[in-house]
Every structure is written in C-alpha cells, then in structure tokens.
Amino acid sequence: MTTSAATTSAALLVRTPGAGFERATIARRAPREHDVRIDIRFAGICHSDIHQVRQEWGSSRFPMVPGHEIAGVVTAVGSGVSRYRVGDRVGVGCFVDSCRACEPCLAGEQQYCQRGMVLTYNGRDQDGETTYGGYSQQIVVDENYVVRIPEGIDFAAAAPLLCAGITVYSPLRRWQAGPGRRVAIVGLGGLGHMGVRIAHALGAEVTVLSQSLAKEKDGLRLGADHFHATSDESTFTTLRGSFDLILNTVSAPLPLDAYLGLLRLDGALVNVGVPSEPSSLNLLSLIVGRRTLTGSNIGGIRETQEMLDFCGEHQLGAEVEVIGADEVGAAYDRVVRSDVRFRFVIDVATLDQA
C-alpha cells in the first residue's frame, strides 16, 4: 500500500516545562518516497523523557511529545520503500535521521553524526520542523532509520530495547563481553537489568554492583552470577582487580577511583548513565593497571538491528509494567523514586479512552 496523505494522531503532549500531560492531536506528514507510517502499539518511558519534560537538561522544546522507545506495525509505505511492507513489526529508537554523509554515518554509527542526529522528539528534522515522539498513535519515519522487531519478542517487552537495550548492548559488544570475561553491571534499573540479561546471554560471568542487596533475587534471576552491595566498604576490597569490564548504568555520581580499582589489567569502566554533576578522579587510577575510563552512546541502525536479532534469538525482552495514558505522570514520579521493575511501557491504545 502506498499513500501520500498527511494524517493527524492522538498524542500525550506537554506544553510548558514541568506541566502535566494533556491529550492532544498532532500532525504527521504524508509519507515521502522512502517513508513508512507506523501505528504505534507501545512506547517505553526512558529517564531521559523525564529530564526533557522537566527541563533538567536545559535544551527542551515545547510543546513536546516525548518517547523514543517505539514498537508498532507498518500501515503505509512510500513509493520507493524497499525494506518494509504493510504489516511488518518495526521499531524506532532515539533518532530518525542524520546527515548520512559524514564518516560516522557512512560507517553505520549514526549516533555520532558530526552534524548531529535528528532526535525522535525534541529535535528538528531536515525541514526545520520540531519532531514529536512515541507517546502518540502514529509516527512517520524514513525506512533507513527503522528496525525490524523479531516475531519472538512481545511488543511491550521490545519497546525498551530501542533505547535501554541498545545502550547496554553496544558497549558490551565493543568491549567483548563473552566467555572468559568478567563483567560488572553497576545498577539494576531499566538499563542495568538489560545489561545483566544481555551480558549473561553473551556468556560472560556477570556481577551486579548495587547500592544495597534489596534487588539481589531479581539480579540472580535475570542471569547474574554474583551480587554485591556497594554501600558495604568491604566490597571494594574483596573485589579489587576482579573485572575486565564495568558497565555503569546509573546517573548518580560515583567515586570513580574506587570503581577503577575493581578493574583488572587493561580493564575498562564504561559509562552510559549521565550524572548531572561533573566527575573527578586521580589519574593514577588509570595509569596503575593501564585502565580505561570511557563512555558509550546508544548504537547505530545496523547495530540496533543486530541487538534485536540477538534478543530474538535468545528470547530476551525488557521486564515491563504496562500502563495507560492517564498513568504517565504518576509513572514519572515512580521512576524518579526507583519504584519500577524495570521499565514502564505505555499501551498507546489507551489514548483512545476518555
């Protein structure tokens, strides 16, 4: 099916910083030659949505429709689309376009586009229009920035993979998590629980480092081999020099020197959480042990598809709590309190319910 008609879509919209959500109708462009129109089934809530809605990063545009963990079904395609057909199960992640010409884009690393990727929401597309995200019933995206969701993954469990899943998969792959490698995951939240599942599926020996032992049963059930409380100072003595890779998924500032001391020779501490305050360290923590302190930012389209295929093969999805459109505001407050196991996902069909 090919269509050229623009449409409108029901959505959850925030008009000003910190305001509540309201139901609204937004415009979606007519599919261009290489566009697909997607009926959104589920949209995950990422902590970055909360930062943006509450203007905590200082770069928000309003009115805003958040959401960059999108799972749905293709309902229309442009005349030149070759990758997808009507009825395909697809997803959209954190960006919907990039310059396509710089070195990172040509290498399939669009997340590092030198001109800047076009964010799925709170961005500006190539026409200068503000982008609206997945807290809506429909979205129109160029086929080259859409990925296929394997049949074996439920839509609700798949949605958070488009951000949380790829955010942990990319560094785990790059720093070679697998058999014979000891991996620590710092934090067992929306990112961390997927880090545990994926690292375990890759064959690594997995340890969770959490502030307390409150989530130990969850961590072991998800695939961790060991679980330690970082509030216990003896943890940093007992585990000194233990890990090849530490993946930090929390947004709170860490005592970096203490965590770097947990690395083996040539080990790496990779950060995917973003603290609001600057961090500091003693450079000797890197020099002694030839350690690496680095970061990682989601993944490109090719790697995101690789991640989804891997999750499909291993029957991995996020553990989610499905909520209705009227529960999003309360869910935001619960995320801030860490009162979720492990990701909220919005049932977009509830936008039709008054």
From TrEMBL:
Enzyme class: oxidoreductase
Key word Hydrolase present: no
Pfam family for this entry, one: ADH_N
Catalytic activity: a primary alcohol + NADP(+) = an aldehyde + NADPH + H(+)
Residues in Enoyl reductase (ER) domain copies: 18-346
EC number: 1.1.1.2
Keyword Zinc applies: yes
Keyword terms, alphabetized: Metal-binding, Oxidoreductase, Zinc
Organism: Frankia umida
Family statement: Belongs to the zinc-containing alcohol dehydrogenase family.
Cofactor requirements of the protein: Zn(2+)
SUPFAM superfamilies on file: GroES-like, NAD(P)-binding Rossmann-fold domains
Protein name: alcohol dehydrogenase (NADP(+))
